[in-house]
Amino acid sequence: MYTVYSVDHSLYCAKLRLVLRHKRLEWRDVPPPGGTGSADYLSLVPTGNLPALVDGTLTLTDSEAIAEYLEEKHPSPAMLPSGLVPRALSRERSRFHDTRLEPALRLTFSNTDPRTRRPDEITAAHAEITKRLAALEILLKAPLSRDQLWLGDCGIIITCEWLDIMVEYGVLPTLDMGPEIIRYRAQMQEFDAVAAELVCYLPHMHDWMDSKHR
């Protein structure tokens, strides 16, 4: 059984759990002792990052590095497609999420509390997210099969849920998700691992948002 240092509301922890669930692996979630910046946690995980996976004497951080490690150690069911081009497309999708889409979402987190919200920052965040969603609409038209869940899908699935909740709570104005994104999200939610994770994760998202509105 793997040990995963995580916190309930973390996007990247949820991204990793999609991999663990889809591969039907056993793990236990453990909160970082003392918090992510504590001396106790840094003694275990020097980077202080979440999630962190412990496998025997190995402690590995960064959700993408962990996902690729699990893919190599547990190759079935495969979460990287066969073939040079499909594998590259899946990795491109992963990098787009981690370096473009999620950082755009992250611009909203400091503005979740309506008492300290800055309209200029929300306007800038909305523009950046809109730009990234337009790019995602195009990327999703690439010839990458949707009959399996790939590593490149996991972050996008979770970040789209966060975008929904930011609109729901009035942090962001309405976002225009194109027809390709809408179809893609519906198809992803048909995977058992995705459905199971969202059932568990969505309440934690709402709890975190509610804590910012008290």
UniProtKB/TrEMBL annotation:
Q: Does the keyword Thylakoid apply?
A: no
Question: Which CDD domains does this entry report, sorted A to Z?
Answer: GST_N_family
Q: Where are the transmembrane segments?
A: none
User: One biological process GO term for this chain?
Assistant: L-phenylalanine catabolic process
Asked if Transferase is a keyword of the record, the answer is yes
Domain (GST N-terminal) ranges: 1-78
Pfam families from the xrefs?
GST_N_3
> Which terms are listed as keywords in the entry?
Transferase
| GO MF annotation list | glutathione transferase activity; maleylacetoacetate isomerase activity
Task: Report the PANTHER family cross-referenced here.
Answer: MALEYLACETOACETATE ISOMERASE
Q: Please identify the protein, giving its name as recorded.
A: Glutathione S-transferase
